Amino acid sequence: MTLISLDLQSRSGKTLAKLDVDSEDTVGQLKKKFHAVNKKYYPARQRMTLPAKEGQKSGEVLKDSAKLSEYGLSSGSVVLFKDLGTQIDYSTVFFFEYFGPLVIYPLFFFLPQIFYPGQKALPLDQRPLVQKIAVAYWMFHYAKRIFETYFVHTFGHATMPIKNLFKNCSYYYGFAAFVAYFVNHPAYTAPDETLSLVCFALAMVCQFSNFRCHTILSNLRAPGETAYKIPSGFLFNYITCANYTAEIWGWILFTIGTHTIAAGLFTAAGAFQMAEWARGKHKRLQKLFDGKDGRQKYPKRWVMFPPLL
Amino acid sequence: MQQAVDIPLKISQSAALLEVVHSAIGLVKSPVAITAMQVASRIWCLWGIVVPCAATVIPQGLLTAGQQAALGLPGWANINFITLMTAWACSEVIRYGFFALKEAFGTPPYFATWLRYTAFMVLYPLGVSSELTMAWRALPDIKARGLFSSTLPNSWNWGFDYHLVCVLVMATYIPGLPQLYGYMLTQRKKVLGGGAAKPKAKAA
Protein backbone atom coordinates (compact mmCIF):
# COMPACT_ATOMS: atom_id res chain seq x y z
CA MET A 1 0.00 0.00 0.00
CA THR A 2 2.18 2.80 -1.27
CA LEU A 3 0.77 6.02 -2.60
CA ILE A 4 2.59 7.01 -5.76
CA SER A 5 2.28 9.92 -8.17
CA LEU A 6 2.56 8.99 -11.83
CA ASP A 7 3.47 11.39 -14.63
CA LEU A 8 1.15 10.68 -17.55
CA GLN A 9 2.70 12.04 -20.74
CA SER A 10 1.78 12.24 -24.40
CA ARG A 11 4.10 10.67 -26.97
CA SER A 12 5.73 14.06 -27.48
CA GLY A 13 6.72 14.27 -23.81
CA LYS A 14 4.09 16.77 -22.68
CA THR A 15 2.65 16.00 -19.24
CA LEU A 16 -1.08 15.44 -19.52
CA ALA A 17 -1.77 14.76 -15.87
CA LYS A 18 -0.18 13.84 -12.56
CA LEU A 19 -2.17 10.92 -11.18
CA ASP A 20 -2.08 9.92 -7.53
CA VAL A 21 -2.70 6.22 -7.16
CA ASP A 22 -1.85 3.28 -4.93
CA SER A 23 0.88 0.96 -6.21
CA GLU A 24 -1.50 -1.97 -5.64
CA ASP A 25 -4.13 -0.41 -7.92
CA THR A 26 -4.67 -1.94 -11.32
CA VAL A 27 -4.00 -0.26 -14.66
CA GLY A 28 -7.75 -0.26 -15.19
CA GLN A 29 -8.18 1.85 -12.07
CA LEU A 30 -5.45 4.20 -13.30
CA LYS A 31 -7.36 4.66 -16.53
CA LYS A 32 -10.54 5.45 -14.61
CA LYS A 33 -8.58 8.12 -12.69
CA PHE A 34 -7.42 9.72 -15.93
CA HIS A 35 -10.95 9.59 -17.34
CA ALA A 36 -12.09 11.56 -14.29
CA VAL A 37 -9.50 14.22 -15.16
CA ASN A 38 -10.27 14.27 -18.89
CA LYS A 39 -13.85 13.34 -19.75
CA LYS A 40 -13.06 12.78 -23.44
CA TYR A 41 -10.85 9.77 -22.85
CA TYR A 42 -13.00 6.99 -21.49
CA PRO A 43 -10.90 3.97 -20.40
CA ALA A 44 -11.51 1.88 -23.54
CA ARG A 45 -9.93 4.64 -25.59
CA GLN A 46 -6.75 4.85 -23.50
CA ARG A 47 -3.60 2.98 -24.33
CA MET A 48 -0.93 3.28 -21.68
CA THR A 49 2.65 2.15 -22.23
CA LEU A 50 5.95 2.31 -20.44
CA PRO A 51 8.53 4.51 -22.15
CA ALA A 52 10.56 2.53 -24.71
CA LYS A 53 13.71 0.96 -23.33
CA GLU A 54 17.11 0.80 -25.12
CA GLY A 55 16.63 -0.98 -28.42
CA GLN A 56 12.83 -1.14 -28.16
CA LYS A 57 10.72 0.55 -30.81
CA SER A 58 7.99 1.22 -28.29
CA GLY A 59 7.39 0.51 -24.64
CA GLU A 60 5.43 -2.34 -23.07
CA VAL A 61 1.65 -1.96 -23.17
CA LEU A 62 0.08 -1.89 -19.70
CA LYS A 63 -2.62 -4.51 -19.27
CA ASP A 64 -5.85 -3.38 -17.58
CA SER A 65 -5.91 -6.29 -15.15
CA ALA A 66 -2.30 -5.96 -13.99
CA LYS A 67 -1.25 -4.10 -10.85
CA LEU A 68 0.88 -0.96 -11.25
CA SER A 69 3.55 -2.47 -8.99
CA GLU A 70 3.99 -5.34 -11.50
CA TYR A 71 5.46 -2.82 -13.92
CA GLY A 72 7.85 -1.41 -11.37
CA LEU A 73 6.09 1.94 -11.32
CA SER A 74 6.91 4.31 -8.46
CA SER A 75 6.42 7.99 -7.69
CA GLY A 76 7.55 10.15 -10.57
CA SER A 77 7.47 7.25 -13.09
CA VAL A 78 6.45 8.23 -16.56
CA VAL A 79 3.57 6.47 -18.28
CA LEU A 80 2.88 7.25 -21.92
CA PHE A 81 -0.66 7.80 -23.19
CA LYS A 82 -2.07 7.13 -26.64
CA ASP A 83 -5.60 7.91 -27.78
CA LEU A 84 -7.02 4.91 -29.62
CA GLY A 85 -9.81 6.96 -31.13
CA THR A 86 -13.54 6.51 -30.74
CA GLN A 87 -14.17 2.94 -29.67
CA ILE A 88 -17.17 0.76 -30.24
CA ASP A 89 -18.19 -2.50 -28.56
CA TYR A 90 -17.31 -5.69 -30.42
CA SER A 91 -20.84 -6.94 -29.96
CA THR A 92 -22.30 -3.75 -31.43
CA VAL A 93 -20.10 -4.04 -34.52
CA PHE A 94 -21.03 -7.71 -34.94
CA PHE A 95 -24.70 -6.91 -34.63
CA PHE A 96 -24.65 -4.28 -37.38
CA GLU A 97 -22.35 -6.37 -39.60
CA TYR A 98 -24.76 -9.32 -39.47
CA PHE A 99 -28.04 -7.45 -39.40
CA GLY A 100 -27.31 -5.90 -42.81
CA PRO A 101 -26.97 -9.17 -44.74
CA LEU A 102 -29.93 -10.62 -42.81
CA VAL A 103 -32.12 -7.87 -44.25
CA ILE A 104 -30.44 -7.07 -47.59
CA TYR A 105 -30.42 -10.56 -49.16
CA PRO A 106 -34.17 -11.26 -48.77
CA LEU A 107 -34.95 -7.87 -50.30
CA PHE A 108 -33.63 -9.18 -53.63
CA PHE A 109 -35.75 -12.32 -53.26
CA PHE A 110 -39.00 -10.61 -52.31
CA LEU A 111 -38.78 -7.40 -54.34
CA PRO A 112 -37.48 -8.23 -57.83
CA GLN A 113 -39.45 -5.36 -59.31
CA ILE A 114 -37.11 -2.97 -57.47
CA PHE A 115 -33.79 -4.71 -57.99
CA TYR A 116 -34.32 -6.06 -61.49
CA PRO A 117 -36.36 -3.28 -63.04
CA GLY A 118 -38.00 -4.10 -66.32
CA GLN A 119 -37.38 -7.85 -66.03
CA LYS A 120 -40.14 -10.36 -65.66
CA ALA A 121 -39.74 -12.23 -62.39
CA LEU A 122 -41.61 -15.39 -61.50
CA PRO A 123 -44.19 -15.15 -58.71
CA LEU A 124 -42.83 -16.44 -55.39
CA ASP A 125 -44.54 -19.82 -55.51
CA GLN A 126 -43.08 -20.56 -58.95
CA ARG A 127 -39.50 -19.70 -58.07
CA PRO A 128 -36.90 -22.48 -58.36
CA LEU A 129 -36.70 -24.48 -55.12
CA VAL A 130 -33.01 -23.64 -54.70
CA GLN A 131 -33.73 -19.89 -54.59
CA LYS A 132 -36.13 -20.45 -51.71
CA ILE A 133 -33.72 -22.73 -49.86
CA ALA A 134 -30.88 -20.27 -50.42
CA VAL A 135 -32.72 -17.29 -48.92
CA ALA A 136 -33.83 -19.38 -45.93
CA TYR A 137 -30.29 -20.70 -45.40
CA TRP A 138 -28.74 -17.26 -45.73
CA MET A 139 -31.12 -15.73 -43.22
CA PHE A 140 -30.65 -18.66 -40.82
CA HIS A 141 -26.88 -18.20 -41.04
CA TYR A 142 -26.95 -14.53 -40.12
CA ALA A 143 -29.62 -14.95 -37.46
CA LYS A 144 -27.39 -17.64 -35.95
CA ARG A 145 -24.45 -15.23 -35.99
CA ILE A 146 -26.44 -12.55 -34.16
CA PHE A 147 -27.56 -15.12 -31.60
CA GLU A 148 -23.96 -16.21 -31.07
CA THR A 149 -22.84 -12.59 -30.65
CA TYR A 150 -25.08 -12.12 -27.63
CA PHE A 151 -25.27 -15.60 -26.15
CA VAL A 152 -22.18 -17.57 -27.11
CA HIS A 153 -19.09 -15.56 -27.96
CA THR A 154 -16.80 -14.27 -25.24
CA PHE A 155 -14.64 -11.47 -26.58
CA GLY A 156 -10.92 -11.20 -25.89
CA HIS A 157 -11.09 -7.43 -26.41
CA ALA A 158 -14.12 -5.37 -25.42
CA THR A 159 -13.89 -2.63 -28.08
CA MET A 160 -12.44 -1.76 -31.48
CA PRO A 161 -11.86 1.56 -33.30
CA ILE A 162 -15.06 2.87 -34.84
CA LYS A 163 -13.70 3.02 -38.39
CA ASN A 164 -13.74 -0.79 -38.34
CA LEU A 165 -17.53 -0.61 -38.19
CA PHE A 166 -17.70 1.09 -41.58
CA LYS A 167 -15.04 -1.10 -43.13
CA ASN A 168 -16.67 -4.32 -41.92
CA CYS A 169 -20.20 -3.29 -42.82
CA SER A 170 -19.10 -2.32 -46.33
CA TYR A 171 -17.67 -5.79 -46.76
CA TYR A 172 -20.73 -7.66 -45.45
CA TYR A 173 -23.39 -5.43 -46.99
CA GLY A 174 -21.56 -5.27 -50.32
CA PHE A 175 -21.16 -9.00 -50.64
CA ALA A 176 -24.73 -9.63 -49.45
CA ALA A 177 -26.07 -7.51 -52.30
CA PHE A 178 -23.57 -9.01 -54.75
CA VAL A 179 -24.51 -12.63 -54.00
CA ALA A 180 -28.24 -11.93 -53.58
CA TYR A 181 -28.37 -10.13 -56.94
CA PHE A 182 -27.23 -13.18 -58.87
CA VAL A 183 -28.97 -15.96 -56.96
CA ASN A 184 -32.34 -14.20 -57.07
CA HIS A 185 -32.04 -12.89 -60.62
CA PRO A 186 -35.05 -13.49 -62.92
CA ALA A 187 -32.63 -15.08 -65.41
CA TYR A 188 -31.21 -17.41 -62.75
CA THR A 189 -30.44 -20.94 -63.96
CA ALA A 190 -30.93 -23.52 -61.22
CA PRO A 191 -28.61 -26.54 -61.07
CA ASP A 192 -29.88 -30.09 -60.66
CA GLU A 193 -32.33 -30.09 -57.76
CA THR A 194 -30.92 -33.20 -56.09
CA LEU A 195 -27.44 -31.70 -56.12
CA SER A 196 -28.79 -28.54 -54.48
CA LEU A 197 -30.65 -30.46 -51.80
CA VAL A 198 -27.59 -32.55 -50.93
CA CYS A 199 -25.38 -29.47 -50.82
CA PHE A 200 -27.69 -27.53 -48.53
CA ALA A 201 -28.23 -30.53 -46.25
CA LEU A 202 -24.45 -30.81 -45.84
CA ALA A 203 -24.21 -27.05 -45.42
CA MET A 204 -26.62 -27.25 -42.48
CA VAL A 205 -24.36 -29.90 -40.93
CA CYS A 206 -21.57 -27.35 -41.28
CA GLN A 207 -23.69 -24.70 -39.60
CA PHE A 208 -24.25 -26.96 -36.59
CA SER A 209 -20.58 -27.94 -36.51
CA ASN A 210 -19.61 -24.31 -36.56
CA PHE A 211 -22.02 -23.61 -33.71
CA ARG A 212 -20.57 -26.48 -31.69
CA CYS A 213 -17.06 -25.13 -32.31
CA HIS A 214 -18.14 -21.73 -31.05
CA THR A 215 -19.56 -23.14 -27.84
CA ILE A 216 -16.36 -25.11 -27.23
CA LEU A 217 -14.30 -21.94 -27.69
CA SER A 218 -16.50 -19.89 -25.41
CA ASN A 219 -16.26 -22.53 -22.67
CA LEU A 220 -12.46 -22.56 -22.80
CA ARG A 221 -12.19 -19.73 -20.33
CA ALA A 222 -14.11 -19.22 -17.10
CA PRO A 223 -15.49 -15.68 -16.77
CA GLY A 224 -12.62 -13.38 -15.83
CA GLU A 225 -9.89 -15.70 -17.09
CA THR A 226 -7.63 -14.10 -19.67
CA ALA A 227 -5.05 -16.84 -20.27
CA TYR A 228 -4.86 -18.63 -23.61
CA LYS A 229 -5.96 -22.27 -23.58
CA ILE A 230 -5.49 -25.10 -26.04
CA PRO A 231 -8.85 -25.86 -27.65
CA SER A 232 -9.78 -29.53 -27.70
CA GLY A 233 -12.67 -31.84 -28.47
CA PHE A 234 -14.66 -32.33 -31.66
CA LEU A 235 -12.73 -31.05 -34.72
CA PHE A 236 -10.35 -29.04 -32.57
CA ASN A 237 -8.36 -32.19 -31.93
CA TYR A 238 -7.21 -32.01 -35.55
CA ILE A 239 -7.58 -28.34 -36.56
CA THR A 240 -6.66 -25.17 -34.67
CA CYS A 241 -9.44 -23.05 -36.18
CA ALA A 242 -12.04 -25.74 -36.76
CA ASN A 243 -14.79 -23.11 -36.60
CA TYR A 244 -13.37 -21.54 -39.78
CA THR A 245 -13.23 -24.97 -41.45
CA ALA A 246 -16.96 -25.45 -40.93
CA GLU A 247 -17.72 -21.88 -42.01
CA ILE A 248 -15.77 -22.16 -45.27
CA TRP A 249 -17.25 -25.53 -46.15
CA GLY A 250 -20.70 -24.10 -45.50
CA TRP A 251 -20.09 -21.41 -48.10
CA ILE A 252 -18.47 -23.80 -50.58
CA LEU A 253 -21.61 -25.93 -50.37
CA PHE A 254 -23.78 -22.83 -50.78
CA THR A 255 -21.83 -21.97 -53.94
CA ILE A 256 -22.15 -25.44 -55.44
CA GLY A 257 -25.77 -25.74 -54.36
CA THR A 258 -26.66 -22.47 -56.10
CA HIS A 259 -24.14 -22.73 -58.98
CA THR A 260 -23.34 -19.04 -58.52
CA ILE A 261 -19.87 -17.60 -59.15
CA ALA A 262 -20.63 -14.53 -57.03
CA ALA A 263 -21.10 -16.84 -54.02
CA GLY A 264 -17.77 -18.46 -54.88
CA LEU A 265 -16.04 -15.07 -54.81
CA PHE A 266 -17.65 -14.33 -51.44
CA THR A 267 -16.40 -17.69 -50.14
CA ALA A 268 -12.89 -17.00 -51.43
CA ALA A 269 -12.75 -13.53 -49.88
CA GLY A 270 -13.90 -14.87 -46.51
CA ALA A 271 -11.50 -17.80 -46.65
CA PHE A 272 -8.61 -15.49 -47.44
CA GLN A 273 -9.30 -13.30 -44.41
CA MET A 274 -9.91 -16.27 -42.12
CA ALA A 275 -6.65 -17.85 -43.26
CA GLU A 276 -4.80 -14.74 -42.12
CA TRP A 277 -6.48 -14.85 -38.70
CA ALA A 278 -6.02 -18.61 -38.39
CA ARG A 279 -2.30 -18.45 -39.16
CA GLY A 280 -1.88 -15.77 -36.50
CA LYS A 281 -3.75 -17.79 -33.90
CA HIS A 282 -1.95 -21.02 -34.75
CA LYS A 283 1.45 -19.34 -34.49
CA ARG A 284 0.51 -17.68 -31.22
CA LEU A 285 -0.58 -20.96 -29.66
CA GLN A 286 2.53 -22.78 -30.88
CA LYS A 287 4.74 -20.05 -29.43
CA LEU A 288 2.91 -20.02 -26.09
CA PHE A 289 2.72 -23.78 -25.69
CA ASP A 290 6.30 -24.64 -26.49
CA GLY A 291 6.60 -27.62 -24.13
CA LYS A 292 9.29 -25.94 -22.02
CA ASP A 293 9.23 -25.06 -18.30
CA GLY A 294 6.32 -27.37 -17.57
CA ARG A 295 4.10 -25.83 -20.26
CA GLN A 296 2.13 -28.10 -22.53
CA LYS A 297 3.37 -28.61 -26.06
CA TYR A 298 0.89 -27.53 -28.70
CA PRO A 299 -0.06 -30.69 -30.59
CA LYS A 300 0.52 -31.10 -34.32
CA ARG A 301 -2.63 -29.80 -35.97
CA TRP A 302 -3.90 -28.37 -39.24
CA VAL A 303 -4.27 -24.60 -39.18
CA MET A 304 -7.67 -24.13 -40.79
CA PHE A 305 -8.38 -26.19 -43.89
CA PRO A 306 -6.90 -29.65 -44.40
CA PRO A 307 -5.33 -30.65 -46.69
CA LEU A 308 -4.42 -27.14 -47.90
CA LEU A 309 -3.68 -25.23 -44.70
CA MET B 1 5.00 4.61 -82.46
CA GLN B 2 2.70 1.97 -81.15
CA GLN B 3 4.93 -0.75 -82.57
CA ALA B 4 8.01 0.79 -80.99
CA VAL B 5 6.57 0.94 -77.48
CA ASP B 6 4.31 -2.06 -77.63
CA ILE B 7 6.42 -4.89 -76.18
CA PRO B 8 8.65 -2.90 -73.78
CA LEU B 9 5.55 -1.15 -72.43
CA LYS B 10 3.69 -4.37 -71.83
CA ILE B 11 6.64 -6.02 -70.13
CA SER B 12 7.64 -3.11 -67.93
CA GLN B 13 4.17 -2.21 -66.73
CA SER B 14 3.27 -5.82 -66.03
CA ALA B 15 6.54 -6.27 -64.16
CA ALA B 16 5.29 -3.53 -61.85
CA LEU B 17 3.13 -6.23 -60.26
CA LEU B 18 6.31 -7.36 -58.53
CA GLU B 19 6.29 -4.04 -56.69
CA VAL B 20 3.10 -5.05 -54.95
CA VAL B 21 4.58 -8.44 -54.06
CA HIS B 22 7.76 -6.87 -52.67
CA SER B 23 5.70 -4.48 -50.59
CA ALA B 24 3.44 -7.28 -49.34
CA ILE B 25 6.30 -9.52 -48.23
CA GLY B 26 8.06 -6.64 -46.56
CA LEU B 27 11.06 -6.47 -48.87
CA VAL B 28 10.43 -2.74 -49.33
CA LYS B 29 8.95 -0.22 -46.93
CA SER B 30 6.16 1.12 -49.15
CA PRO B 31 2.62 0.57 -47.90
CA VAL B 32 0.91 -2.26 -49.77
CA ALA B 33 -2.37 -0.41 -50.29
CA ILE B 34 -0.77 2.61 -51.95
CA THR B 35 1.47 0.49 -54.16
CA ALA B 36 -1.43 -1.77 -55.10
CA MET B 37 -3.61 1.22 -56.06
CA GLN B 38 -0.91 2.66 -58.28
CA VAL B 39 0.00 -0.58 -60.02
CA ALA B 40 -3.66 -1.61 -60.38
CA SER B 41 -4.61 1.58 -62.21
CA ARG B 42 -1.71 1.24 -64.64
CA ILE B 43 -2.36 -2.44 -65.31
CA TRP B 44 -6.06 -1.72 -65.88
CA CYS B 45 -5.29 1.20 -68.19
CA LEU B 46 -2.77 -0.78 -70.23
CA TRP B 47 -4.35 -4.23 -70.43
CA GLY B 48 -7.95 -3.19 -69.91
CA ILE B 49 -8.17 -0.12 -72.10
CA VAL B 50 -5.22 0.61 -74.36
CA VAL B 51 -4.46 -2.91 -75.58
CA PRO B 52 -8.01 -4.19 -76.23
CA CYS B 53 -9.24 -0.88 -77.65
CA ALA B 54 -6.06 0.23 -79.39
CA ALA B 55 -7.84 0.87 -82.67
CA THR B 56 -10.17 3.34 -80.94
CA VAL B 57 -7.99 5.05 -78.36
CA ILE B 58 -4.67 5.46 -80.09
CA PRO B 59 -5.74 7.53 -83.07
CA GLN B 60 -7.88 9.95 -81.04
CA GLY B 61 -8.12 11.25 -77.52
CA LEU B 62 -9.63 14.52 -76.44
CA LEU B 63 -9.07 15.69 -79.98
CA THR B 64 -9.88 13.70 -83.08
CA ALA B 65 -7.06 12.94 -85.50
CA GLY B 66 -8.24 15.71 -87.78
CA GLN B 67 -8.37 18.32 -85.01
CA GLN B 68 -4.90 17.28 -83.89
CA ALA B 69 -3.46 17.64 -87.39
CA ALA B 70 -5.15 21.02 -87.76
CA LEU B 71 -3.36 22.19 -84.63
CA GLY B 72 -0.05 21.01 -86.03
CA LEU B 73 0.46 18.35 -83.37
CA PRO B 74 2.34 15.08 -84.14
CA GLY B 75 0.31 12.60 -86.10
CA TRP B 76 1.60 9.21 -85.00
CA ALA B 77 -0.80 9.01 -82.08
CA ASN B 78 -3.31 11.13 -80.22
CA ILE B 79 -1.85 13.66 -77.82
CA ASN B 80 -3.29 11.88 -74.77
CA PHE B 81 -1.55 8.64 -75.65
CA ILE B 82 1.69 10.60 -76.03
CA THR B 83 1.23 12.28 -72.66
CA LEU B 84 0.35 8.91 -71.14
CA MET B 85 3.58 7.37 -72.43
CA THR B 86 5.51 10.45 -71.32
CA ALA B 87 4.04 10.43 -67.82
CA TRP B 88 4.57 6.69 -67.32
CA ALA B 89 8.02 6.61 -68.86
CA CYS B 90 9.32 9.66 -66.99
CA SER B 91 7.93 8.37 -63.68
CA GLU B 92 9.54 4.97 -64.12
CA VAL B 93 12.92 6.33 -65.25
CA ILE B 94 13.06 8.74 -62.33
CA ARG B 95 11.91 6.17 -59.77
CA TYR B 96 14.09 3.29 -60.89
CA GLY B 97 16.99 5.60 -61.59
CA PHE B 98 16.69 6.77 -57.98
CA PHE B 99 16.54 3.18 -56.64
CA ALA B 100 19.48 2.10 -58.80
CA LEU B 101 21.66 4.99 -57.64
CA LYS B 102 20.66 4.30 -54.05
CA GLU B 103 21.71 0.66 -54.38
CA ALA B 104 24.93 1.51 -56.19
CA PHE B 105 26.12 4.35 -53.96
CA GLY B 106 24.29 3.93 -50.68
CA THR B 107 23.03 7.53 -50.85
CA PRO B 108 21.77 8.76 -54.19
CA PRO B 109 22.90 12.20 -55.43
CA TYR B 110 20.63 14.93 -54.12
CA PHE B 111 19.37 15.70 -57.63
CA ALA B 112 18.00 12.16 -58.02
CA THR B 113 16.23 12.38 -54.67
CA TRP B 114 14.86 15.82 -55.47
CA LEU B 115 13.60 14.65 -58.84
CA ARG B 116 11.99 11.54 -57.39
CA TYR B 117 10.09 13.55 -54.79
CA THR B 118 9.22 16.54 -56.98
CA ALA B 119 8.48 15.34 -60.51
CA PHE B 120 5.34 13.56 -59.30
CA MET B 121 3.71 16.93 -58.74
CA VAL B 122 3.43 17.31 -62.50
CA LEU B 123 3.55 13.69 -63.62
CA TYR B 124 0.70 12.43 -61.40
CA PRO B 125 -1.93 14.84 -62.77
CA LEU B 126 -0.56 14.35 -66.28
CA GLY B 127 -0.73 10.57 -65.99
CA VAL B 128 -4.14 10.51 -64.34
CA SER B 129 -5.71 12.83 -66.89
CA SER B 130 -4.22 10.78 -69.73
CA GLU B 131 -5.44 7.49 -68.25
CA LEU B 132 -8.93 8.88 -67.76
CA THR B 133 -9.07 10.32 -71.26
CA MET B 134 -8.08 7.02 -72.82
CA ALA B 135 -10.71 5.23 -70.75
CA TRP B 136 -13.37 7.79 -71.64
CA ARG B 137 -12.56 7.34 -75.35
CA ALA B 138 -12.77 3.56 -75.01
CA LEU B 139 -16.13 3.40 -73.24
CA PRO B 140 -18.44 3.47 -76.28
CA ASP B 141 -16.25 0.86 -77.99
CA ILE B 142 -16.37 -1.37 -74.88
CA LYS B 143 -20.13 -1.07 -74.69
CA ALA B 144 -20.65 -1.80 -78.38
CA ARG B 145 -18.41 -4.87 -78.37
CA GLY B 146 -19.53 -6.17 -74.96
CA LEU B 147 -15.83 -6.40 -74.21
CA PHE B 148 -14.91 -8.81 -71.35
CA SER B 149 -18.58 -8.95 -70.46
CA SER B 150 -20.88 -11.87 -69.94
CA THR B 151 -24.63 -11.88 -69.68
CA LEU B 152 -27.19 -14.01 -67.92
CA PRO B 153 -28.47 -16.62 -68.29
CA ASN B 154 -25.61 -19.09 -67.99
CA SER B 155 -25.11 -22.21 -65.91
CA TRP B 156 -22.95 -20.52 -63.25
CA ASN B 157 -25.14 -17.43 -63.07
CA TRP B 158 -22.37 -14.97 -63.69
CA GLY B 159 -22.94 -11.59 -65.29
CA PHE B 160 -20.23 -9.02 -65.76
CA ASP B 161 -20.65 -5.60 -67.29
CA TYR B 162 -17.13 -4.40 -68.04
CA HIS B 163 -18.44 -1.05 -69.21
CA LEU B 164 -19.96 -0.45 -65.79
CA VAL B 165 -16.80 -1.66 -64.08
CA CYS B 166 -14.71 0.82 -66.10
CA VAL B 167 -17.01 3.66 -65.10
CA LEU B 168 -16.68 2.62 -61.44
CA VAL B 169 -12.90 2.37 -61.73
CA MET B 170 -12.80 5.85 -63.23
CA ALA B 171 -14.88 7.06 -60.30
CA THR B 172 -12.34 5.64 -57.84
CA TYR B 173 -9.78 8.04 -59.25
CA ILE B 174 -11.66 10.81 -57.45
CA PRO B 175 -10.69 9.67 -53.95
CA GLY B 176 -7.65 7.80 -55.27
CA LEU B 177 -5.61 10.67 -56.70
CA PRO B 178 -5.74 12.86 -53.56
CA GLN B 179 -4.68 9.83 -51.50
CA LEU B 180 -1.68 9.00 -53.70
CA TYR B 181 -0.74 12.64 -54.19
CA GLY B 182 -1.07 13.33 -50.47
CA TYR B 183 1.10 10.33 -49.64
CA MET B 184 3.84 11.59 -51.98
CA LEU B 185 3.61 15.10 -50.51
CA THR B 186 4.11 13.73 -46.99
CA GLN B 187 7.03 11.63 -48.21
CA ARG B 188 8.46 14.72 -49.89
CA LYS B 189 8.29 16.71 -46.69
CA LYS B 190 9.88 13.89 -44.77
CA VAL B 191 12.74 13.32 -47.19
CA LEU B 192 13.40 16.79 -48.60
CA GLY B 193 11.98 18.86 -45.78
CA GLY B 194 15.07 18.13 -43.67
CA GLY B 195 16.82 20.87 -45.62
CA ALA B 196 19.40 20.99 -48.38
CA ALA B 197 22.24 21.09 -45.84
CA LYS B 198 21.93 17.45 -44.79
CA PRO B 199 22.28 15.70 -48.16
CA LYS B 200 25.15 18.01 -49.21
CA ALA B 201 27.00 17.21 -45.97
CA LYS B 202 26.46 13.48 -46.58
CA ALA B 203 27.69 13.67 -50.17
CA ALA B 204 30.81 15.53 -49.03
Automatic annotation (TrEMBL), chain A:
Highest taxon listed in the record's lineage: Eukaryota
Keywords, comma-separated and alphabetical: Endoplasmic reticulum, Fatty acid biosynthesis, Fatty acid metabolism, Lipid biosynthesis, Lipid metabolism, Membrane, NADP, Oxidoreductase, Transmembrane, Transmembrane helix
Membrane topology: Multi-pass membrane protein
Residue ranges of the TM segments: 90-111, 170-188, 194-213
Main location: endoplasmic reticulum
Pathway linked to the protein: Lipid metabolism; fatty acid biosynthesis
Enzyme class: oxidoreductase
Residue ranges annotated for the Ubiquitin-like domain, each copy included: 4-81
Subcellular location: Endoplasmic reticulum membrane
Protein's name according to its UniProt entry: very-long-chain enoyl-CoA reductase
Origin species: Tetradesmus obliquus
From TrEMBL, chain B:
Transmembrane segments: 44-63, 75-98, 162-181
The protein's Enzyme Commission number: 4.2.1.134
InterPro entries: Tyr_Pase-like_PTPLA
One GO-annotated biological process of the protein: sphingolipid biosynthetic process
Catalysed reactions, as listed in the record: a very-long-chain (3R)-3-hydroxyacyl-CoA = a very-long-chain (2E)-enoyl-CoA + H2O
Localization: Endoplasmic reticulum membrane; Membrane
Pathway per the UniProt entry: Lipid metabolism; fatty acid biosynthesis
Membrane topology field: Multi-pass membrane protein
UniProt keyword annotation of Membrane present: yes
Domain of life: Eukaryota
One GO CC annotation: endoplasmic reticulum membrane
GO MF terms, alphabetically ordered: very-long-chain (3R)-3-hydroxyacyl-CoA dehydratase activity
Key words, A-Z: Endoplasmic reticulum, Fatty acid biosynthesis, Fatty acid metabolism, Lipid biosynthesis, Lipid metabolism, Lyase, Membrane, Transmembrane, Transmembrane helix
Pfam families, per the entry: PTPLA (PF04387)
Broad class of enzyme this protein falls into: lyase
Coiled coil regions in record: none
Family according to the record: Belongs to the very long-chain fatty acids dehydratase HACD family.
Role according to the record: Catalyzes the third of the four reactions of the long-chain fatty acids elongation cycle. This endoplasmic reticulum-bound enzymatic process, allows the addition of two carbons to the chain of long- and very long-chain fatty acids/VLCFAs per cycle. This enzyme catalyzes the dehydration of the 3-hydroxyacyl-CoA intermediate into trans-2,3-enoyl-CoA, within each cycle of fatty acid elongation. Thereby, it participates to the production of VLCFAs of different chain lengths that are involved in multiple biological processes as precursors of membrane lipids and lipid mediators.
UniProt protein name: Very-long-chain (3R)-3-hydroxyacyl-CoA dehydratase
Natural source organism: Tetradesmus obliquus
